[in-house]
Amino acid sequence: MRYDLLEKPDFSMVQVTFDAPGEQMICESAAMVARDSAIEMKTSMQGGMMAALKRKALGGESVLQNTFTASAPGQRLFFAPGPEGDVEAVNMDGYTPIMMQSGAYLGAAPTVTLDTSFGGAKGFFSGAGVFLLKATGTGPLFFASYGGIHPVDVGPAGYICDTGHVVAFTGGLTYNVTRLGGLRGLFASGEGLVCNFTGQGRLWMSTRNSASLVAFLNPFRPVKRSNG
Amino acid sequence: MQIDIGYRPAHSMAKISLNPGEQILAESGAMVGMSTNVSMTTGMQSKPGGGLLGGLMAGLKRALAGESWFRNTFTANGGPGEVLLAHAMCGDMQVVQVPATGLHLTSSSFIASTPSVNIETKLQGFKGFFSGEGAFVMQANTQDPNSQLIFGAFGGVTELVCDGNLVIDTGHLVAWDSTLTYKIGKSGGGWIASFLSGEGLVCHFQGQGRIWIQSRNPVAYGQYVGGQLPPRKG
Asked: What confidence tens digit (pLDDT) does each residue in A114-140 have?
């Protein structure tokens, strides 16, 4: 199985080419863009209903996932996320888990297992979901975000990221949520909360925050008069 | 200081590499990420000697101009550091050197500048009121030939050269050289014709200088998408 990321970074799309019959890819529901005809699609709840519902409720993933199975060599599958923005691919090595922000997961090989992971009470304050989606196993994993996705390799010095911009990070990193700039910053900086990452690993950040777009558009909605 | 802009044009982000002790002043809320040896302080940035009252007035003017009240200063401590800055809206960014003659900016386009740039929010008076950009513009001045300023646009950024006269729709205006004089006015022959043309108000520029425009108008976009959303409660 080979993959390419097309149309990066504004309208990224994944192209997977299956080398052999029987190879599989699992995608979020509605992510498929196109496929060759010798690919079979099956809709299921990965890991059973309870596991799927848990991931839906806690990890922002769709309940139903689609499994695409090639029945001939050289078959292509294209898939993409809903919002405009970037897709990142990681080749899972079997050792390092990837933690993803709720809703960031796009697709993976069936050898990758997904579970929700409690982000801790710290998640409650982070603007980020309380729960993170945790991917383990081997093979390609794809995640997406509104905006561009910017990777940073975090070393011993750590890194600071606005909570609204965290997309994913490797399991070797841990974080705590703090405020920037002390008491004055609390009210005035507009920077809100940040994640202080420590450890060793890679952090992926989004260059845009969809909440800002929503906040911009909201005043343009028509106004419904009460008892008009 | 090194400024690199990536992810252009739609989701552009500026990576500011600071030498030890170097600072950058950024619009509130623009920070995406930064290294841990960078510290942030929040201030109202009044004119030197302006005192608390001056700071409050500067903050109030900025709030009225549609910007945030405060700006944040990022400082690299004890070694090199980096700060990632982005605009809230989809669009490109541009780094410019502020000329000795100064630069004007529309109020929402400022993202960051080196500390040697003095930024003032100016009331435009009556003429600004109808411009769709608020009654305020910002003016950036500096004596430092190495000063830099980053602004963000909605859509792509195009640099135009005004040699004599140029007419720009106010919703597409981002920044211009302060050497230019400008007047907000109607776009067509009469007020009714101007209104019917849908072009609204335009900025008549005169003189020699550069003008940066954005290829999309945020208000037009807001009306296009927002108008199709379900109503909110009045």
From this structure: 888 766 555 444 455 567 889 999 999
